[in-house]
Amino acid sequence: MSLPVLVLAGSRDGAQDPLARHGNVAHKALLPVAGRPMIDRVLKTLSATPSLGPVYVSIETPEALDALDRAFTCVPTAKGPSGSVALALDRIGAPLLITTADHPLLQPVWITEFLRDAESSGCDLAVGVALRPVIERDVKGTKRTYIPLSDMSFSGCNLFLLRTDRARAVIVLWQKLERDRKHPLRMARTLGFGILLRALFRRLDSATLTSRIHALTGARVSLVPMAHGRAAVDVDKPEDLALVEKLLAEAS
């Protein structure tokens, strides 16, 4: 059975996005990475991964991708990534694999291992993460943004599996938190003050975090550690682009 894939490629600033301007392209997803649009690298990886497809791309300007010689269907974006995921989930349903257009290092083996571990966890929604020691082992000298829990410090890998329809409730929670991101008190009320206090003092562990999400949504969430530190490297700024091109050159 083929697993549908959603690639998040939205950029509200279009050609005015800083990376689009940096690359002199009409959209961030088309930023050249070692001579090829970074979304094209992602789409090639997806096509080379067994049991994936069809592929959907969430982008506000589908015509920007007309020159790509890949098989995919464009779907609408919404305000924020959580809204775009919600729209796509309404159309496609679960299970659904999600990644992003700014992940040009993505490899088939990473996806295959992530899906294997997500399935074995029996969760409703799986989130791919890379632990700090793994990232520092594989990408020496990199500066990533880490989420510090008491039992692990990790960075996201832009890989998500909405394994069952119960994952929809987590997306609804995500949308609420996204709407309230400038209102910490509202976020605290949603998540619970105890959770936020534990996080503030670095006493929050992964089991407590996922248990709280389960209590709020009824969905079982699993943080799936990746064996590859480079899975946490995406392209959000020019420095990331330089790093990715360096890593690609070393691998060739």
UniProtKB/TrEMBL annotation:
The keyword Transferase applies. The keyword Electron transport does not apply. Gene3D superfamilies: Spore Coat Polysaccharide Biosynthesis Protein SpsA, Chain A (3.90.550.10). It comes from the Bacteria. Residues 21-130 form the MobA-like NTP transferase domain. GO terms for molecular function: transferase activity. This is NTP transferase domain-containing protein. Keywords: Magnesium, Transferase.
